[in-house]
């Protein structure tokens, strides 16, 4: 993720990653009270573009707000800092990880201090290019009445780590989690879509992370005349789907080969997921609007 020359934004300045220090008494370290984001920048014909920067930084700010973490950066400032950081690191494309950590306070009320760090590194497709073999997890997604499931709070990711470890130990690539009502929710770090005939179905918001990639995919479907239903569905229904895929900033659009012992029957190359994988790539590379114009 870093070498001796890597630069990060930390506590108000762009500095070398090596040599920066973090607060040992931070609530983020002890209790998981911190907020993060996962963003990608792409090298496009118009130069480096941070994809959906505004939406990601709005979500970061919303996370700080729900956890009462003081955070005074504006979305515009955050975007400007991030472009500068990419430039100083000589990155034309990168994965970007903003992280708000909370100050030294061992009480269980949010500290009145916070520090923003932004790291970035070169990262290929998080889940690779292969079709994924997925295992239904024994862990459920968190109950929305016990935390803000739509905020990227560092502590919430224990649930993701437990399910990803469980899947990996059993020889699978990824986990699929149900919500507290036994509806299909999402993977450890991506949203899920299934294809049935010519329509796509994805869990509605409420018990899931409302993914920015998920929204881009839904919007692409609208533009392309592909019908998408946002509704609850059970595992049994997913196991009758023709095809399925995950969406996320890190994972982008990635197809599923199987879920437990169910093999998705439709050839991935003929699926709507494959088509959307291609459209998504065009969108992040700013190639779509151009195509529409000509
Ligand atoms: N679900 C979970 C649990 C996640 O952590 C993420 C990544 N933020 C996603 C879905 C996908 O969200 P996005 O498309 O905004 O990256």
From TrEMBL:
Query: Which EC number(s) are documented for this chain?
Result: 2.6.1.42
- State one molecular function term (GO): transaminase activity
Pfam families with a match to the protein in the record: Aminotran_4 (PF01063)
Q: Which cofactor does it need?
A: pyridoxal 5'-phosphate
Q: Which SUPFAM superfamilies match?
A: D-aminoacid aminotransferase-like PLP-dependent enzymes
Catalyzes what?
L-valine + 2-oxoglutarate = 3-methyl-2-oxobutanoate + L-glutamate; L-isoleucine + 2-oxoglutarate = (S)-3-methyl-2-oxopentanoate + L-glutamate; L-leucine + 2-oxoglutarate = 4-methyl-2-oxopentanoate + L-glutamate
Name of this chain's protein: Branched-chain-amino-acid aminotransferase
* Primary gene name: ilvE
